[in-house]
Amino acid sequence: MARQSVFFVSPFLILLGDTKMKTLNVDVAVIGGGTAGLGAYRAAKAHTDSVVMIEGGKYGTTCARVGCMPSKLLIAAAESVHQIEKAPGFGIHPQGEIVINGQEVMARVKSERDRFVGFVLEGVDEIPAEDKIIGYAKFADDHTLMIDDHTKVIAKRIVVATGSRPAYPGVWNELGDRLIINDDVFEWNDLPNSVAVFGPGVIGLELGQALKRLGVEVIMFGLGGQVGPLTDPDVMAYAYKSFNEEFYLDADVQVESMKREGDVVEIQYIGKEGELKKITVDYVLATTGRRPNVDQLDIDNTSLELDARGVPVADYYTMQTSVSSIFIAGDASNQLPLLHEAADQARIAGDNAGRYPEIRAGLRRSKISAVFSDPQIAMVGETYKELTTRLGTCGCFETGFVSFEGQGRSRVMLRNKGMLHVYGEHGTGRFLGAEMIGPNAEHLAHLLAWAHQSKMTVAEMLDMPFYHPVIEEGVRTALRDLNAKLHLGPDMIKHCLDCGPGC
Asked: Which residues form the active site (predicted)?
């Protein structure tokens, strides 16, 4: 009887045998298959063929799936509506009502988004199957990773490139499917009637303004008065005023209650005049920041040194952690959560993991960031907060200023909103950084970032060519103001003759 029983279940036993834990010994294991993971994998492969990439979720990168690209698609649709609405300012009056078809808007967003994701997936498909492991990795020790219940990876070096995820107060989960994050927006088949956005940061400003211009009723709340990534109080104050002209924004709100009532959310809050207000919205969009995905890696099983947020401490130039054989890159590093930064960190971390123990400092470019709102926000080099922290109030730096409200080309295009602050160092005259809100800020920021990385002085920047009439002439005005305040050039002339009229 026993023999019959064993004979009967033997196929099942064979299946169980197939699912036994498999052990792999590799030179480099990369945890994560997003922007940083893919970059680190390719960099490490330049030094050794023994590299595996471990991914538990969908391939496609945060940027392509739910970040940079789909958000810009939504913004592009919103900008097309806004241009029509601005036309009467030029004496052009479109006839009839503007009809926004939410289903068509979202269909294009998703279609183009899927196209961008497809390009990434093509790159993933080119990676040999034996180099890809599907599953979630956890540390067993400094060199051992357990992938779900199927694979043990013993790696000489490891790169952590697990990305980040949206973070918000846990109590908000009581709102159920009325609570959404930016990922959810890009799965909509149609636009809702109303949304409350919590968090006027980069994502909140971009999505909130775009939805408003596409006909969605938008109200935006924040805490602590922060608007976007700005740190310069004057530039931030301008941004706060500008966005409030388009939709309700309270950057330091006092919310009394927020609860779900059927298929809507009821929010009670204290208005700017101190009165209790009540609104109902279809959705609450949480854009209150992102959290590095390192808390589920069982890092406690390693000897890694962690910062206050539980993220491995890493060298800025080598991406090497306190454990010499472990590196970190991308959003998981909690340094600069931007795609171009993730790509740079990935190349550095992957290269060093591949060439270990020979470690090299990688190129860290001048910082540049942008918010694709209208007006756009951009920051370059050292921020105002970083400069005041580093230099204090000793008068070691000065601020140059220009307003875009009267700037020639900006007025021509009816885009004359915004201001630019540029910072320069006393004595050396070196350009230190900038914060701005204004037209074409994404392009102005690139020019300034190139100058910053080249360690140019303000005088050297003023020697560069400026065409007329262009928005960049506003940069020259701010630099001239800065040069004068640094006592390295003449005082500003109210009407600049060599710029031509209206500059």
From this structure: 468 (proton acceptor)
